[in-house]
Amino acid sequence: MIKNRRLLIPVLFAVVLTVGAEVPGKDGVAVNGISQLFPAADVKLEPNDGGAVRMEGDVAVVDVAPERSFSGAKFVFGKPFAFIDCRTVSVEISNRTDRAMGFGFYGIHRGDYTWYAAQRFRLEPNQSKVVTALNRPKSYVLSPGSQAIPGLIGYDAKSFPNSVNKSSTIDFFVVFCDRQNSPAQFDVKCIRADSGKQSFTLDVNDKFFPFVDEFGQYMHADWPGKVHSLEELMASAKAEEAALLSEPESPIPGVDRFGGWGAGPQLKATGMFRTEKWNGRWWLVDPDGHIFFSLGCNYVRLLCRTPVARRERFFSWLPSREDPLFADCWKDEKFNWHVDSLYKGVDTVPQFDFAKANQKRLYGEDWKEKFIDRQHRRMRSWGFTSMGNWSDPEIMAASRTPYVDNFNLDGVRKLEGDKHGMWRKFPDVFAPDFASNLVQRALTTRTPKSRTDPWCIGWFVENELHWGRGNKTDDMIDAVVGSPDDQPAKVEYLRRLKAAHGEDATFESATAKDKDDFAADIAERYFSTVKQAIEQVAPGRLYLGCRFHNSYPAALRAAAKYCDVVSFNCYRDLPETHRPPADAVDKPTIIGEFHFGSLDRGSLHAGLVPCCDMKDRIEHYKAYVRAALKDRNLVGVHWFFWSDMPLTGWMDGEDFMTGVLTVTDTPYPEMVEATRELARELYPQSARP
What we know:
alpha/beta; 23% helix; 689 residues; five-stranded antiparallel sheet
């Protein structure tokens, strides 16, 4: 996951609703709940990302610039447009080009550059269409005068002053075309907003507290599946156990023991997971030689600890730290890196795990063994074929469900000038001990047996390393130049500049080619050295890459050269990623994280890709996986994640309730049925030539 979530909002297409003035229609007048935003007298047209725009009568005609990701037009309002109870925004658009193209639109609030009412879509050659974006609120907002809820992303006024009571208006709308290799053209005939009653406002005052019940659920709402008593908790567990007993086997037709397609083609069996391009499509191949698609889930484990210190009034119930049943649900943990206004300068913070407390209510002190068994049975019965990153080592080590393992580069010397690293600074690949330290890190995977375990698919190394904003090398070079003078990468960079431009050369002497070449060498050294370390420690184990969330072409090219599978975390409506360039080595890819969330099941935060409700969430989930199954390079997608995060957030402030299971260990039945439906389609559909 990513440290500064607000930076991702433009990719995530979120909508935030607040209370404001009446929605204006054409020239400021709303008509029958429909507000016309364009054409309108006070709208000014501007180009966006290299595009060009002009008016032809009442129609805006847009010329798209090649090789741009958001080339199109801005529709700038004379007065900001207020989102009040706005249900949808619609755009009437025509593709004027003789090829199919992808499009998108979104609204912008200048104050914090939050994106609103956004949508992605596709138009066939010369097709015209009215495309509608539903409100998909990312989180509740606090009503004017409300208090903050410290320690949660979006509600900590000290850490995120711009996220509270902000973003109530749209200053301009953008309509754009996805990146094209050649010029293209489209037009926009109309933009409208449809009002409708919706409320996503929290009035946080003294009466609001406490808002977390004894099971870790939100107190001020009800929803299907909410647990109201110990009796209901136990009845829910018994009902699920009966369901697992009635459907113990995978819904995948012709499935083998690993979750591969046993009824499909028989390929070479090596006793380990590997990759092969079969029938024009990349596949994972399981140890028995059957094609395998990794429909997985991250964090298959029990981890729902939430900070309690300085937030005691959030909770309606907290047991004593000496309670005979719940004492080990408490843990003092070292402060992480978020919500520093709350815990700055604090060494350790008391935390309580409501999910673990619920397990103890259900199963007593021997809950863990039953919990491990139940997760494997669930995955098999529901149709998941793998456990994604950061799953419980004890669950992985049981060798009943394929899994991925990982290790980070803690202890390896970093670029001290790296100011943009999401989780940690970028490693200095020129440090003399980089390779030897990598080998030592490779020996510290979460599950030691994964070096030889046939159930281990492969290893991710690091997570969301920062390769540069906007697909440019500038951030990497700035990290090198901004480091101390004895930083090995900085010493080497200056040596190369002097060799190219003379002994008087400085960092200011660097040309664009110098920067690109050095950044490319960093990527080459990084991926090649990691690959060598894995081959030394675990010969034949698949190297699954670094889980890109941003990159530049040279980094993608190097990844394709050395990784067995190139990985991306892709929080979008569909599995669209920064693929390796066309001249790179052809390699399979995997999506290490994606999810969709909503606010209708007791959540205060819908995650990184918000939906209207559970129904909308499920539709997006199925569309995403089905699109992945049609992609001839994708060999897997991993949902983030297995169980909901705590309502009051983890130590890093993340409070995304996007799990397959709730804090009470209750499955969301819609997610279970959707996964079973997808599992039945997994191989027969995607294996077609």
